[in-house]
Design brief:
six-stranded antiparallel β-sheet; 9 strands; 16% helix
Length: 170
């Protein structure tokens, strides 16, 4: 009587887990002095994570996310600014709010700079906004925007410009 050897049990097939995108690395970008570059120009607008849907105050949201990553903003012409150096590429870019809205700027417009801006935008969009505030003047008014207790606000002191109304969201 011959005994047959039992077949080895096959290992159960493991279900492959979907690959998760890695969280952007906040240490990739460091603040630099406002005069670290000889100039920059608008590269493109910020593309917020909610897409093209309307938002009550995208400038405050942008500020809150940047503030959470890099602290208080620097003053800029009619807005705020963050000058940042990508430690991987050594490219300096600017994340700012100005008369044309929330945007990115850089001295160059080339594939490496665009990739740096894309990486910074991914980091910003993956960051939960902090309470924050920025004050700046425009030709028409003094503006204070930010996030207070998780709520966006925009206070506009228009002095003689009463036709602009009250933009307070408190």
């Amino acid at each position: 009587m011959s005994k047959s050897k039992p077949k080895p049990k096959s290992k159960p097939k493991s279900k492959s887990k979907p690959k998760l995108e890695s969280k952007p690395d906040a240490a990739r970008f460091v603040r630099v002095e406002w005069n670290a570059t000889t100039g920059s120009r608008k590269s493109r607008e910020w593309r917020p994570p909610w897409g093209k849907k309307n938002h009550d105050n995208p400038g405050a949201e942008y500020l809150g996310r940047l503030w959470a990553l890099f602290g208080p903003a620097d003053d800029a012409d009619q807005g705020f600014s963050y000058k940042l150096r990508d430690v991987q590429s050594n490219i300096i870019v600017e994340a700012y709010e100005g008369p044309s809205g929330s945007a990115f700027g850089a001295a160059q417009d080339d594939p490496a700079t665009r990739a740096t801006i894309d990486a910074l935008e991914s980091l910003i969009n993956a960051t939960k906004p902090d309470d924050c505030h920025a004050e700046y003047g425009t030709d028409e008014a003094n503006v204070r925007i930010g996030i207070r207790n998780g709520k966006h606000f925009c206070d506009v002191d228009v002095d003689d410009y009463s036709e602009y109304g009250d933009f307070s969201e408190d």
